[in-house]
Write a sequence for this structure.
């Protein structure tokens, strides 16, 4: 037995070590690939954040700045009227533009230009305006490739009027006629934009911006041709030759023709030597620990094995095989039942503990329990100084059962201890509320959440609202909980984003008022005119403003509610009961739609289908256009001596005034005024031939306020006065 004991230990150690070494080698190769891919993915995510951040600033400046400037009544009237003159009266706007540029962080200069009859009237840079005749050299006019294009981007260059390096964006003046080719040039401060871009980069390296033509926007030009080639191949990064040991990440802007570039040493992204050394040390430690553990386990199991051999030696040789098999089956059945009972008990304990801990966690975040109350329960142990709350919601719409399963899986995955922080989560309806507990009070909450979701590979599945940091012993957790919950609501108007950081964005300071009434009124007018293209344009303007205008979520939801109410009301005025056709109140859509992109598409479809139905119903009111024409002719002839009007005719044929006015010429062959004039003149000839009425009486019967005016109209049409016409007719009869 002693030889057996020694051989058992040696053989087990050799087998376990061999298997473990092979596993370490294979796992090392695989882990390095995963490590490299994860590191590159981290930097790509960082570049995505840089792109989204700078794009957001650019979109806000380009879309909002011209509208904000031109909303100023004095500036708007001046720009609108100045193009009619041979000189530019821009001097009076200098103070207005100066104050406006002082408020704009990324815009350092602004030009206004419009063109008519090949003569250019130029506002010039406000810093160079001294008198009406001041016309400094403006290079951006000649760099605009297509004057009909809504937006043109011009690369960084030395701009003579401003005496500094700028990049420019040239946009249309929205309210001028297209023939004037009105343009506004926004000159961007590239130093400020460069500083803003560098805030998104965590580490060393060079951040710069170029355009898709290889021209430099910010930073020093370097290997721009390689960058453009990689961009054309749809690559997010590329590595240089081995001796250079650098890697460059690139992302293309969604707003303009810019390309964001981040160049850094390859060792900052991934380091093979450090990875091999680290894994080698850990492998040696694990091998040593495995050898010791295997020896210890063999020493422990040697006693039971010895007892088994003793029992085997005492089994009677003459025992029937049937009895032995029966005894073995009984033992197996009892052991199986015992194991199943234990597994079920363990599952129940885990489930009950999770339910209880989730209940206490939600109560703590809502202010129902104090920090000490949570510690006393024993279900949750906070051994940390600070923390912050998050609210997590699924991005895509699933069935109720699928959503529940996915939310439970995410909640269970979040409940664990990480290296320097821990996460506790609870499910409330369709939202997961998570409490992150961190050791370092200076840690940035957004970075911790992003690192966690990326590690768990669930970043693309959810929206995340991030609350403010707080101290467990002195601060209230409810402020962080409320901030995270409110921040998550902004996923409704910004569905392309993942993280909504209340501390960074300061959502409570977002605007609560705007100029929505003007656009909504235009939408209602377009609906009443049955103009789908105009309706589509006004809807696009509303939702674009909500997306980029930094409006408070309550203002956004109220605006969506008002838009739905306007559509519902306008359809009612057109005689189309929208609620009856939809089988629900359109205003309830804002509570069932996931985001404003889906709401915009739904409203466009509803408007289109409603206008088609209204048009078809109008056509079926009369079997043909000829029937409608005859009906209108009869109404006019029967009421020619009365105070007839287009509104009276519309009411008689049960048609809206604006619909009849728009379609009168196609029905009757001419406009309403020309048709009435012709009918009255024909009737006057008939009355003159009867020789029963004077010219004055006929003018009065036909509704002319002045006999002189009636004579002028008659003479213009027939080439003679009514009296002369009557005399000729009488002579012909004789």
């Amino acid at each position: 037995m002693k030889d057996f004991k020694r051989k058992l230990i040696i053989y087990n150690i050799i087998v376990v070590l061999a298997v473990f070494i092979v596993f370490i080698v294979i796992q090392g190769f695989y882990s390095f690939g995963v490590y490299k891919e994860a590191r590159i993915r981290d930097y790509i995510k960082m570049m995505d954040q840089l792109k989204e951040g700078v794009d957001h600033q650019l979109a806000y400046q380009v879309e909002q700045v011209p509208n904000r400037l031109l909303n100023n009544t004095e500036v708007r009237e001046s720009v609108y009227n100045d193009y009619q003159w041979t000189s530019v009266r821009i001097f009076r706007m200098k103070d207005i533009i100066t104050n406006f540029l002082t408020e704009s962080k990324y815009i350092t200069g602004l030009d206004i230009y419009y063109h008519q009859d090949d003569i250019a009237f130029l506002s010039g840079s406000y810093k160079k305006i001294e008198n009406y005749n001041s016309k400094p050299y403006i290079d951006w006019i000649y760099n605009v490739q297509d004057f009909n294009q809504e937006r043109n981007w011009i690369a960084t260059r030395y701009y003579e009027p401003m005496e500094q390096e700028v990049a420019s964006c040239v946009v249309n003046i929205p309210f001028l006629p297209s023939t004037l080719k009105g343009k506004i040039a926004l000159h961007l401060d590239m130093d400020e934009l460069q500083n803003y871009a560098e805030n998104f980069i965590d580490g060393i390296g060079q951040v710069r911006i170029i355009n898709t033509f290889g021209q430099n926007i910010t930073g020093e030009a370097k290997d721009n041709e390689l960058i453009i080639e990689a961009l054309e191949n749809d690559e997010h990064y590329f590595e240089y030759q081995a001796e250079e040991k650098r890697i460059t990440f690139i992302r293309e802007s969604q707003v303009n023709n810019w390309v964001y570039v981040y160049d850094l040493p390859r060792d900052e992204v991934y380091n093979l030597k450090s990875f091999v050394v680290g894994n080698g040390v850990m492998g040696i430690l694990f091998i040593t620990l495995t050898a010791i553990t295997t020896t210890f386990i063999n020493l422990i199991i040697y006693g039971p094995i010895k007892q088994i051999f003793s029992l085997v030696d005492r089994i009677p040789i003459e025992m029937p095989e049937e009895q032995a098999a029966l005894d073995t089956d009984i033992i197996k059945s009892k052991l199986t039942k015992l194991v199943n009972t234990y597994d079920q008990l363990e599952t129940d304990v885990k489930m009950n503990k999770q339910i209880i801990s989730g209940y206490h966690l939600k109560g703590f975040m809502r202010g129902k329990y104090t920090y000490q109350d949570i510690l006393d329960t024993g279900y949750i142990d906070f051994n940390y100084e600070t923390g912050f709350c998050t609210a997590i919601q699924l991005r895509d719409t699933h069935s109720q059962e699928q959503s529940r399963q996915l939310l439970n899986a995410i909640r269970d995955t979040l409940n664990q201890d990480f290296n320097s922080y821990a996460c506790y989560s609870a499910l409330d309806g369709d939202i997961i509320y998570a409490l992150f507990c961190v050791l370092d009070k200076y840690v940035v909450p957004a970075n911790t959440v992003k690192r966690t979701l990326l590690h768990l590979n669930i970043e693309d599945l959810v929206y995340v609202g991030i609350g403010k940091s707080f101290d467990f012993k002195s601060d209230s957790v409810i402020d962080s909980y409320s901030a995270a919950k409110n921040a998550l609501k902004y996923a409704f108007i910004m569905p392309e984003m993942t993280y909504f950081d209340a501390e960074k964005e300061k959502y409570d300071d977002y605007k609560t008022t705007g100029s929505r009434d003007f656009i909504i009124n235009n939408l209602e007018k377009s609906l009443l005119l049955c103009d789908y293209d105009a309706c589509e344009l006004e809807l696009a303007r509303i939702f674009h403003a909500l997306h980029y205008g930094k409006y408070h979520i309550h203002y956004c939801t109220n605006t969506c509610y008002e838009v739905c109410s306007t559509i519902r009301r306008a359809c009612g005025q057109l005689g189309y009961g929208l609620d009856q056709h939809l089988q629900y109140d359109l205003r309830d859509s804002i509570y069932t739609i996931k985001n404003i992109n889906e709401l915009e598409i739904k409203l466009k479809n509803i408007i289109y289908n409603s206008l088609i139905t209204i048009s078809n119903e109008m056509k079926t009111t009369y079997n043909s256009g000829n029937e409608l024409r005859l009906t209108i002719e009869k109404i006019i002839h029967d009421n020619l001596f009365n105070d007839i009007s287009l509104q009276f005719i519309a009411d008689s044929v049960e048609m809206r005034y604006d619909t009849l006015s728009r379609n009168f010429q196609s029905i009757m062959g001419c406009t309403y005024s020309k048709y009435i004039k012709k009918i009255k003149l024909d009737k006057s000839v008939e009355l003159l031939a009867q020789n029963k009425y004077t010219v004055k009486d006929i003018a009065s019967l036909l509704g002319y306020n002045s006999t002189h005016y009636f004579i002028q109209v008659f003479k213009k049409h027939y080439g003679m006065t009514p009296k002369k016409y009557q005399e000729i007719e009488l002579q012909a009869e004789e």
About this structure: Residues 83-90, 116-135 have pLDDT under 50 and may be disordered. Residues 516-621 form one domain. The chain is about 55% helix and 15% strand. The two ends are 156 Å apart (CA to CA).
